[in-house]
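Illustration 12: NADH dehydrogenase [ubiquinone] 1 beta subcomplex subunit 7.
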Amino acid sequence: MSEPSTNKPKLVGKIILLAGNGDRLADVIHRFIASMEAPGSSKKMIATQEEMVEAKVPIPYRDQCAHLLIPLNKCRQSEFYLPWKCESERHTYEKCEYELVMERMLQMQKIREREAQLKAQSPQSIPLIPKTANA
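Figure caption equivalent — predicted structure in token form:
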């Protein structure tokens, strides 16, 4: 016998589905991506999923700097991709991307430091290949 449908959220993978309300999977995924924030990131998503789809932003570029990429791409198209045009837009976008990379590097450095501390605190493991007495 099936349980009565409720609007209680269920966690399936990393996508939160609302059971029983007849949402299309594509709508649920779009809501999930739109609400997605990078864990531990200081930057928030400004551009919505709909804005990024409308501006045809490629999926790998839909990060916390996408709100700067949309006007940059519009400027590039209107200026026929001339490299000396849209410099201020390109600079702000590249600076945003640089800050995201530096933030991720700092997070990874902190993770490595924590792992090194845990490894130093844990007792030494037994070697798989024993050393012989004459070595």
